[in-house]
Amino acid sequence: MRPIKLFLAAALAVALPTSALAQFAQGQTLSANALNAALARPTIVGGTIDGAPIGSSVASTGRFTSLTATGLVTLIGGPLNVGAGTVGAPSLYFGDSATGLYRPALNQLGITINGAQVGLWTAAGLSNVPTFTATTSVVTPLVASASGPLQFSSATGTISTNSDNTTLLGDPTHRWISFTGTAIDSGTTGSLALRTNGGATQAKIVNVGDGTNFANIEGSATTFAPVYFANGADTNIGLLFSTKGSGSLDFATAGTFVGDANTNRTMQFQVLHNASSVNVLNVSGGATANAVTIDARGTDANVNLDVRTKGTGAIGFRTDVLTTNVPQFQVLHTASSTRNVTVTGSNGGNPTIGVTAGNLAITPNINLGQAASRIIPGATSISHRNNADTADNFLITDAGNATLLGSLTTSQTGGIVGTTTNNNANAGSVGEVQSCTVATGASVALTTNTTANICSINTLPAGDWDCAGAVDYTFGATTSYTNLVGGISTTSATLGGQDTKFDYETAPNVPTATADATWPLPVAP
Q1: Which end of the chain has the lower number of beta carbons within 10 A, N or C?
Q2: Longest pairwise C-alpha distance within the chain
Q3: Residue 12: what pLDDT?
Q4: Which of 521, 403, 418 has its CA nearest to residue 466?
Q5: How far apart are CA 186 and CA 165, in angstroms?
Q6: What is the distance between the alpha carbons of residues 295 and 226, in angstroms, rounded to a whole number?
Q7: In angstroms, rounded to a whole number, what is the distance separating the alpha carbons of residues 435 and 442?
Q8: End-to-end CA distance of the chain
């Protein structure tokens, strides 16, 4: 075995053989046994150990199996290279072999505590960090500060609290890009505010009750709308929208977004303030085959539903809204209206259309039945007309006169009721009577074989008239007659044909003087 040489840059204090201490001079040669005995427990002060490898007979592969030191250990020169380690057995640890540093993969540094990863450093930074909790009860905070139990330097972003937990998390120049967690709690009965621009409150969550029921805000996928809804432990939970003071509650569409700001909105629905409101409007959807409902409700026993327009606008009712969207009924404006139309249903009788005052005027006409007929109001009359006709079937004037196109059929026993007192029908009406009379003292003298007009009526209007009468003859004391003829005719001084006159013939006869003989005349059409 060749001798081993130790080259020392300075004198080394080594223990004597009895205590494993020795003193070596520069250039001194020792045997291996002497060196081993001297280095059993050496204390090396300064200098270097060079030459043959320590712990191995192959150059450049030797290593210490175990190196133990007390106090401060300083490594000078090349890097400290250790194994990768694992999460359960880190390569660098400090008394606890399950807590330390290890390398999970290339370019990564893991932090493990009690065999569990609590941090991972990569080129992107620190990740996989569990929740940091800091309250006034924390004895040893993560980062201690005189201003509170938890504070990160504002040079990279602030996370800080003070004794009453009111200091902001972050600051205007070091804002959080994102925050991940399952809950944010104010920690007190105070509200929780969401602010922008260094302190402008934009939303606030107020502490009320025990939080059994609450509001949910939910985003949506493509083609679906975000959702705001009530949630909680109760089976049925309402959702209340309220304004401050007399402010209105507005719903708009078609907002234009500039960044995150919604502008140029189009108002679609508005709920206005009523200071003493006790009655409300209720809107309800409908199940299959049932109608959607709009109704009035409230504390009053009877609550009206008032629909109004602005200015002279009309109220319209339409059907088939998704396709043709056609109007079916309209209520038009009347300035200073004091009389209104009423519609009343019925329980077994006929529903009615009425007015609060005056009469009901309908224009231009009323159709009765789908394709049968219509009633047409006029300026001075009202008429009934079939849809296929251009002439009136029945006309009543404001004077009470009626015109009927076609026949009039009455009941067999009822008939047409005429006048019930000693008067005559009006001119032009059925039952009208016109007459003329020649008194006995003003008789018309007759000449044998000469026809004369006894009485004439020249005022008969057009129509179908039934004419009747009687002729009285007053004879002289010596008058003898053999033929008496009388009748009704439309031609002056002319007798009509058979059945329009009477014709009495006899042997020469001299009646009693001044005695009247009456002969009835046939009814002439």
Answers
A1: N
A2: 215
A3: 35
A4: 521
A5: 9
A6: 29
A7: 17
A8: 175
